[in-house]
Design brief:
The structure is a homodimer of 350-residue chains. Chain A is an alpha/beta fold and 350 residues long. Chain A has helices at residues 38-45, 61-71, 83-95, 112-118, 161-169, 224-237, 244-255, 257-280, 302-311, 335-349, and strands spanning 25-27, 78-81, 102-105, 123-126, 146-149, 176-179, 200-205, 218-221, 283-284, 292-297, 314-316, 328-331. The longest helix of chain A is centred in the C-terminal third of the chain and has 24 residues, at 257-280. The radius of gyration of chain A is 20 Å and the shape is globular.
């Protein structure tokens, strides 16, 4: 049909499988195994649904203010969106408008090249070094912008802050986005670098450490000017993005710091236990600071292990893709879920 | 700062004022004066917040299925997004990729030119005729796509279906988007035309007739191929957009047809009463089939009336913009709200 000539044709991102069976152990999409902060359930039950007839606050003030207070920045330094994917995609559109290619690691979050293609942004991938670490020198070549996750996905490796600073310092003429989706599991945020660098944008999410993937909340922190540009583009798209429950319940979740520390602490402890067990079973992996482990077995192909676990109703993530097709990305679940996983692996590999 | 050279600079859309005072009469953003369907409050109070830790269904199946059943189409013909603004903006990106300008009326929803600018889509506006109706002949000139609201905003005028069909028929080589945000207040949807035209995309919203602006739900209906293209682009942005409460409560709202008919019927009746009263006060307006009236007074400038009403805590919408700067867009509220409005106008104009 002729109208199809003008259609933007893209290869859509394929998200991790979301099986509908309830009895499975779901370790494939890096969700949090614990529920959101208790106050969320309480307020949710009392939500004033009459107010749903009105538009939500287009400035997302409740959640922006809660985050500003928590992270010790001004509200004008915080931007909130529909998950960090929304925030990141908007950031690509807003900040990556050079003819020079933007740079990101070759093994990284698989949405970066999808957004670049969607917005027709030229890009160049910088191969990870042999130890899976980010090639800091490679990030210093001429470019139109830089983005990388810290910790990186799906490796889980944390890039130390002095290296992060080196990358930002070398790229003062473009925006450097540090995607900190997994920062709360033992990494160190680049937030203190904001005082020195106006070209830094930090993006985080409520989907992992704040146990609210189902509410779709992400945010960015930067200097006031960079956040203003992001808001201008946001208001060109859709003034009202976060719906009322996300704004109300999200703000509440940020305020319960004790609960947040408790669940992230538990996930870290479970991850360290899982690392030991996996090592004992013959797996190797980069030393993850995220809520997942990216593991390869010394003799059994990842795909075989993946299929076996699936048969046991344990879902982990596998990509049939060059360089990473012998690794499994295993989300850290509860202690019990991880014991079940390890027991299943013992049967299969033992 | 050098990094600013690559920033996408836009003139953001300015949405209707959202005053924070509670005691005002808010007739400025076309929200519904009645609460959402009763089942929404009931289920909201029982929401399983533990499941918020998981990603929502990326295919929005519950809401897509409910809409497909309600409108008698296949689920593969329905696309859901974060308000109709999200759906429309994605549609611009997906379908308007020609070098030829897209066409829309000169007086219309003020986001169209914002999206065109954002995505660098060439566009040409087609002036409304003297009676505020859409210039059907003007919509037949060479173009890269067509979009218009039906009823149009802010005029409220409905374009009869034979005229709509004439526009679609004359533009078989591009996508024609009919933005039916206000269709449920006495207009007639173009849905039956889908059987004849594969280049037609119909967009609607939960923000007006379904009383859920605060939940951010919009949707599009078209043939399976057009919806597939839209989904491909959506999955390139953000796989998970509608959050859990929107999916669950939105589906529920669609199922209560009796309530839907009741509140839209009440709004229509209130609108017709308001028309008579406004006429008696010396106002003229296009004959609205929407939940608002676009009224000019025979002698008092719109801006003066706007300022006076504001002082009375009654907010209506006014644009200080050529061609429409002597009109007020007045949202239809409850009977009581409209009586208060008319009484205030009587004092000011009498």
């Amino acid at each position: 049909m002729v109208w199809e000539n003008n259609v933007r044709k893209v290869v859509p991102y394929v998200a991790g499988e979301q099986p509908k069976k309830k009895e499975i152990i779901k370790l494939n999409t890096n969700e949090c195994p614990y529920p959101p902060a208790p106050a969320v359930a309480k307020l949710s039950a009392q939500m004033d649904t009459n107010s749903f007839r009105l538009y939500p606050d287009q400035n997302n003030e409740s959640i922006v203010n809660a985050l500003a207070e928590y992270y010790g920045v001004k509200p004008t330094q915080v931007f909130a969106g529909v998950g960090s994917d929304d925030v990141l995609s908007l950031s690509f559109l807003t900040f990556f408008n050079s003819d020079k290619p933007i740079l990101f690691p070759d093994v990284t979050y698989s949405f970066y090249d999808v957004w670049a293609d969607l917005y027709r942004i030229p890009y160049k991938t910088v191969p990870l070094l042999d130890d899976w670490s980010i090639d800091v020198e490679g990030m210093k070549q001429e470019n139109g912008g830089v983005i990388f996750p810290n910790p990186n996905a799906p490796t889980g490796l944390f890039t130390p802050l002095d290296k992060v600073e080196e990358i930002i310092e070398a790229n003062r003429d473009v925006v450097v986005i540090v995607d900190e989706a997994y920062i709360d599991f033992g990494g160190e945020s680049a937030l203190p670098l904001l005082e020195k660098y106006d070209n830094l944008l930090i993006v985080q999410t409520f989907s992992k450490s704040r146990a609210m993937a189902g509410m779709r909340i992400g945010f960015a922190i930067g200097n006031e000017k960079i956040i203003k540009y992001l808001n201008d583009v946001k208001f060109s798209f859709n003034s009202y993005t976060l719906n009322m429950p996300s704004q109300i319940l999200g703000a509440l979740a940020v305020k319960d710091d004790a609960y947040f520390k408790d669940i992230t602490g538990k996930i870290i402890a479970t991850r360290e236990w899982t690392k030991k067990e996996l090592t004992g079973l013959g797996f190797t992996f980069p030393d993850s600071k995220a809520n997942f482990i990216f593991a390869s077995h010394k003799s059994v192909p990842a795909k075989d292990i993946y299929n076996y676990l699936r048969g046991q109703n344990i879902f982990v993530r596998f990509w049939d893709k060059e360089r990473i097709n012998n690794s499994l990305r295993i989300t850290i679940g509860t202690d019990e879920q991880m014991r079940t996983l390890i027991a299943a692996l013992e049967v299969f590999l033992g």
